[in-house]
Request: fold
Amino acid sequence: MMLDWKRKKQKREVEERQASNGVIYLAFPALEKSGVVKHGFSTRFGGVSQGCFSSMNLSLSKPDKATNVRTNFQRMAQALDVSYESLTLAYQVHSTNVRVLGKEDRGFGITKERPYRDVDGLVTNQREITLVSFFADCIPLYFVDSKNHAIGLAHSGWRGTLQKIGQRMFETMQREYGTEAEHLLACIGPGICIDCYEVGDELYQAFQSSFDPCSLEDIFVKKANTKYHLNLMEANKRILLQLGVLEENIHVSDICTHCNSDYLFSHRKHGENRGNLAAFLALR
Reply:
């Protein structure tokens, strides 16, 4: 099964994959070629949820059956060739808080209760941990340091982007693992595109305090009636470039969640009556 994706550019940075159990997910060829990680970004296909959650809902906070959601996690783990017990979940509140995960944190949110309630970024250098974060238009950020064998996964909506969670992630990996910008591979995953993301003047004003004028020209397009369109993917790319990450090591998704809402959950398209997508990242 090959889906008819609506893409934003000719160069395909993200590709569809179908596992033997029928799960369809998206993957970055750049991360696959690195040889050091397993990863994926879920679609709406291959799960057991019903109705507006159909079928691969990965949110335990939605009014879906918990047994269905856990089965969906099991199916995703099988598709990505990671253990269900290794899944370790973020607890997202649109913060810039980053949690460093050790062996004792393995399975938080899956096999044991999470002791945290405000974590939008996860980093680890442990092979037995699979990082998991959740999306329905916001931007996934994948970080891979193949030199020091460390990884990070972050959730970056407009609040996280404004407060530069990408920078917080890098600084945490630099402090904990010795990560260097020139050796970092970063992927900016599927999320809402600039054409679909209209915002008000107040958000433009807020970004003026965090981004230089040249960057603002590239991440905002002014519309009529004090409205703008915001490019969250480009904003996160700008943050990484300013940190010294090499442009050739930054890969930006060409797939928008809103444009492809038949295949991906989108908050702007579906509202609250929907499931959640998830990003997964683990060291081999």
Q: What stands out?
A: The chain has a mean pLDDT of 97. The first helix runs from residue 29 to 34. The helical segments are 29-34, 66-80, 158-162, 165-177, 201-208, 213-219, 232-243, 267-270. The chain is about 25% helix and 25% strand.
